[in-house]
Amino acid sequence: MVVGMMGWNVHEQGWWRKGPWTPEEDKLLKEYVSLHGEGRWSSVAKSAGLRRTGKSCRLRWVNYLRPGLKRGHLTPQEEGIIIELHALWGNKWSTIARYLPGRTDNEIKNYWRTHFKKKGKPSEKKDRRRLLKQKMEQDETGTGAKASPLSEVTSEQTLSPELQAQQEFPTLPLHPVMENPQLPVLYQEADSWSDTNILMDGLSGWLWNFDDQNGKGVQANNDCSKMTNKNQASFAPCSFGFDNVDVQNGGYIY
DNA sequence: AAATGTCCCAACCGCTCTCCC
DNA sequence: TGGGAGAGCGGTTGGGACATT
């Protein structure tokens, strides 16, 4: 059976329903979780009278119904944290999400995909549109991020996102290298530049994969292979924490 | 006004991990 | 210790909303 709803096809293969959740289903799930707490999702479905798989219930709760979830665009601070943590952990969205209270892994994943993953750059008009929309939302709420990330972020970055996050979320652990001094790369004195390059290769993919104009990526002065040892030595310890922001290209300079 | 492009987000799928027996 | 079930995670898809052409 297939039922058209909100543009989705709501499949009812056997007993389970699929597709968008209805307000009634949300209500049932919220009531159940408020009474019994999270967990045992497979039994939640049947106990709450929902024709949804446990998986679907969990996802709905985690990504949409859970109290404390933020809505709306990510702030520049949150963007910075995502960029930093993604450089550390890669696509560990759930791990990254732990340091962004109120944000879900799904949201962060979607955001990354939209803004950083793709090769081509949306037009600057699009960016302006997004920023304008963000500003309007902030004007309405009187809270949140600055109106223009690009114009304000330089001063914002006086504190590295890590330190900002550390202040905002005291549980944020130190960078792994700070906790593990034996790690030989980048953040401390590297034994060799090849060691640092290993990490930089990983970093370069995201550092300058911001939306670019020509589809080739905005490659700033982080071509480590062309740097002298002297440059490398001064460059290596600078990571984690933006030293500057390339406003024109939208990249962060370390 | 219609067509097109892009952004955003909810939801699903398949795989992996963890726990328990 | 191995297998099964449940939970979690990352990748992907589909569609609405909105701006641009």
Q: Note the overall shape.
A: elongated
Spans of at least 5 consecutive residues with low confidence: 1-9, 119-254
Q: Report on the biggest sheet.
A: 2 strands, antiparallel
Percentage of residues assigned to helices: 40-55%
Class from secondary-structure proportions: mainly alpha
Q: Quickly count the domains.
A: 3
How many H/I helices? 12
Determine Rg (CA atoms, Å). Answer: 22 Å
In which order are the strands of the major sheet placed?
1-2
**Overall pLDDT confidence:** 55
- Spatial separation of the terminal alpha carbons: 56 Å
String of helices and strands: EEHHHHHHHHHHHHEE
Strand content: 5-15%
Give a count of the beta strands, DSSP E runs of length 2 or more: 4
Can I get a quick summary?
Residues 17-69, 70-120 form the HTH myb-type domain. By secondary structure, this protein is mainly alpha-helical.
Describe this structure in words.
- Residues 17-69, 70-120 form the HTH myb-type domain.
- One of its GO terms (cellular component) is nucleus.
- The structure is a single chain.
- With 254 residues, this protein is mainly alpha-helical.
- The chain folds into 3 domains: 2-65, Homeodomain-like (Arc Repressor Mutant, subunit A), CATH 1.10.10; 76-168, no CATH class; 176-253, no CATH class.
- Helices cover 49% and strands 6% of the residues.
- It has 12 helices and 4 strands; from the N terminus they run E-E-H-H-H-H-H-H-H-H-H-H-H-H-E-E.
- The longest helix is centred in the middle third of the chain and has 18 residues, at 124-141.
- The model is unreliable at 1-9 and 119-254 (pLDDT under 50).
- The protein binds a DNA duplex (21 and 21 nucleotides) through helix 3, helix 6 and helix 7.
